[in-house]
Design a protein that fits this description.
The protein is α/β, with parallel strands linked by helices. It has two domains: 10-187 and 226-259, NAD(P)-binding Rossmann-like Domain (Rossmann fold), CATH 3.40.50; 189-225. The protein is built from eight helices and seven strands. The longest helix has 29 residues, at 104-132.
Length: 260
Amino acid sequence: MNEGFLAGKTALVTGSTSGIGLGMAKALAKAGANVVLNGFGPHEQAVAEVAALGVETAFHGADMRQALEIEAMMQFAAQRFGRVDVLVNNAGIQHVAALEDFPTQKWDDVIAINLSSAFHTTRLALPAMRQANWGRILNIASVHGLVASALKSAYVAAKHGIVGLTKVTALETATTGVTCNAICPGWVLTPLVQQQVDAKALALGVSVDEATRLLLSEKEPSLQFTTPEELGELALFLCSAAGNNVRGAAWNMDGGWAAQ
């Protein structure tokens, strides 16, 4: 891939103020894309980190549960930069509970943020992508879009749905220069996951290294975290000319989780 191969293009990454989304935003910025970030809570640090890579940046705080706010965000991106060339649907939340105890509002929130928001951003981004005959839609699913775990009904349902939405989008754009693919990570080393590791170490009275091994050994044969940077590099491959005919893939980066 040529350095700066996304220069002049614009990427919009939902849920990008930290973790995987911020890693994606940085990778796309390093390739030259202007970036629209989105997320809850403080965003100034994330915007500064992306802007420091020498691209134009903007932020929109749309609540990804709300279709009208998503529409406003997409209009904002189009007015600021012309159109969205690379759409990364990354926003997501999690709630863990048994089916019979799962709060209905939590179910609705997980489905709205993890699945429905990607439908809304995609339907709004596609017309301009079709007109330009170029676009990349990357849906950040999960290994839970391929396999299930107990107590995660809403998350697993949403992520399986994202994989299905990816395939339909890919088929509907198959003869165009627009591609749509899903990335399916396993455990990713984000600040939130590091907090889980630290809590496990404290609760069990073991080292952080041992807590890490215990966490990963439950699901991930490689015993290694995937990093946001690695996911960003995969995103760049899918955005490059080498990814022109990768369509409707659910590409797992999960240390062997789904291979078991």
